[in-house]
Design a protein that fits this description.
There is one protein chain. The protein contains 1 helix and 10 strands. A hairpin with a 5-residue loop joins strand 4 (90-96) and strand 5. By secondary structure, the protein is mainly beta. The strands form 2 sheets. Strands 1-5-4-7-8 form a 5-stranded antiparallel beta sheet, with no helix packed on it. Strands 2, 3, 6, 9 and 10 form a 5-stranded mixed beta sheet that branches. Helices cover 2% and strands 33% of the residues. The protein has one helix spanning 16-19, and strands at 48-53, 71-80, 84-85, 90-96, 102-108, 114-120, 125-129, 136-139, 147-149, 153-156. It is extended, with a radius of gyration of 22 Å.
């Protein structure tokens, strides 16, 4: 594992375009031998949150805890008839808290149709959906620290062109 600050690799005399050209950055790699550094990135997703019912006691309705007690839900969205992942599509999670109050969290799917909601309050009633008029999926109440991987959600769309399954098609 390699760790570096955001300014590495950086060469102040090169433009952004010049940095992308092979051989423009100093390197100690020659004929396949030398040191190659790696860069790791951790992205914590943020979602849109909307209040349905206020929480009793004036608690912040869209403040979620991310700790060992919080639960999470993940899954994928597939578009039919192609059965391809549906990317950049909003998935909604309605969370009705055990102590009262409810919110809708919205998150867009990734390139492979995946989504993930974290910081879920254990014991909440959870419903996933793909928007108005689409079927909903009820998630069983989750225990503290539990992760639930939901079944694939399918969205029928005859207007989405299917990707060819082989170069000959």
């Amino acid at each position: 594992m390699a760790v570096a600050t955001s300014d590495w690799p950086f060469h102040p005399d090169l433009s952004d375009l010049e940095v992308t050209l092979p051989g423009s950055m100093p390197s100690n790699v020659g004929n396949g031998y030398g040191y190659v550094g790696g860069v790791a990135e951790w992205t914590i997703p943020l979602h849109h949150c909307e209040m349905l019912e206020p929480r009793p006691g004036g608690e912040s309705f869209c403040e979620h805890r991310f700790d060992a007690r919080s639960a999470s839900v993940s899954g994928r969205v597939i578009v039919t008839p192609c059965n391809d992942p549906l990317s950049l599509w909003p998935v909604r999670l309605t969370e009705r808290f055990a102590g009262g109050g409810a919110v809708i969290r919205t998150w867009g799917t990734g390139w492979e149709g995946e989504y993930r909601f974290e910081g879920i309050e254990p014991g909440s009633e959870l419903v996933l959906d793909l928007g108005p008029g689409m079927p909903a999926y009820t998630v069983p109440p989750l225990a503290p620290g539990e992760h639930f991987h939901a079944e694939d959600m399918f969205m029928e769309n005859p207007f989405v062109p299917c990707r060819p399954s082989s170069p000959n098609q």
